[in-house]
Amino acid sequence: MPDNDIKTLSEAREKTITKTSVIGILTNLVLVGFKAFIGFISNSIAVILDAVNNLSDALSSFITMIGNLIAGRKPDKKHPLGHGRVEYLTAMIVAALVIYAGITAAVESVKKIINPQTPDYSAVAIIIIGVAVVVKIILGLYFRLVGKRVNSAALSASGTDALFDAILSTSVLTSAIIFVASGVSLEAYVGVIISLFIVKAGFSMLKETLDDLVGHRADRELVSAIKKTVCEDPCVHGAYDLIIHSYGPEKHIASIHVEIPDVMTADEIDDMERRIAHNVYLKHGVILTGIGIYSLNTKDDSVKNLRSHVLGLITTHDSVLQVHGFNYNKDTETVSVDVILDFDLPDMQAEMDEIQKELKTNFPQYNFRLVMDIDA
């Protein structure tokens, strides 16, 4: 993909996120105005807290927009891989604001339970709350749709939050209708429920963002697609150990090992590596910064048989997910193999020691060098 096309896509993504954030800010500010007005004239703590929640949504959209502008800055000497991870930080700030709003709402609601006040709803107030519910549903679906399309965690989080708001606003509307119909006030209790939902949503958003910062398992579909692209190269007999690092939603850098025939020359390997890196970037937008080599024996039938027996013995262990990278050094009589074990195994090293012992028992004439790979 040409650099100009990449730049155009990046700019388009930035404009889309900014536009969506502005729509969210304006919509939520309008809702804040209406709900705050209704809440004060009707003496409804639930409606007032709903307005506060919309105000936090507006602030969240503003933070998302600012974070997107910072993340879109060009790479510099201090940040050669760009500023994309700023989007994760803004998503954390949004989550923290949501949690704060929820805790504040809980405190105010408990105060109203201790010192209850009777609300006074009008037909107009109920209609406006109903319209607000519809608006939040539309806004939430719109945010999630755009967030998924441009791969923005902050927008997606804001969309999920908006849908939660719609549910909470529905509970406010229901309590208002119940009060008008029966005179029973559920205001403060509904406020407590709203606050708990808000806090829960905030912690869920925070957990997702922390997973992005700490580093989590790459998307299985993306991993499979990249390996498939790599294995489509005529020189490659297997692709392993794909590790993907994220430097923002649109910046992925990776490394991989490929198994190739032992008769290839340095020139042929160099050409293959460049070809693979180009194809992976073209199809998946992932930059391969390193391509490691596993040599596949094609000349000695005895080595082929040894490989078959060794791999067969190792894979009899249920905890072994994959075996690859087989290599035999005739000079030192050393067999090297990479083994991937299940993370659920209580003691991985003990399992590796057991495999090493079995190999030595069955093939005493060889030295074994086992490498424990991770199931990434």
What does this structure look like?
With 376 residues, the protein is of the alpha/beta class. It folds into two domains: 3-214, Cation efflux protein transmembrane domain (Alpha-lytic protease prodomain-like), CATH 1.20.1510.10; 220-373, 2-Layer Sandwich (Alpha-Beta Plaits). 64% of the residues lie in helices and 15% in strands. It is built from ten helices and six strands, in the order H-H-H-H-H-H-H-E-E-H-E-H-E-E-H-E. The strands form two sheets. It has a three-stranded mixed beta sheet with strand order 1-2-3, covered by helices on one side. A three-stranded mixed beta sheet has the order 4-5-6, with helices on one face. The model has no long low-confidence stretch (mean pLDDT 83).
Defining traits:
three-stranded mixed beta sheet; Alpha-lytic protease prodomain-like; 376 residues; alpha/beta; Alpha-Beta Plaits; 10 helices
What is the gist of this entry?
The chain is of the alpha/beta class and 376 residues long. It is built from 10 helices and 6 strands.
Mean pLDDT: 83
The fourth-level CATH homologous superfamily of the largest domain is Cation efflux protein transmembrane domain
Query: Could you state the oligomeric state of the chains shown?
Result: single chain
How many discrete structural domains?
2
Strand-helix topology:
Elements: H1 3-42, H2 45-71, H3 86-114, H4 123-150, H5 153-182, H6 187-214, H7 220-231, E1 238-246, E2 252-261, H8 266-284, E3 286-296, H9 301-314, E4 320-329, E5 334-341, H10 348-362, E6 367-373
Parallel strand pairs: 2-3, 5-6
Antiparallel strand pairs: 1-2, 4-5
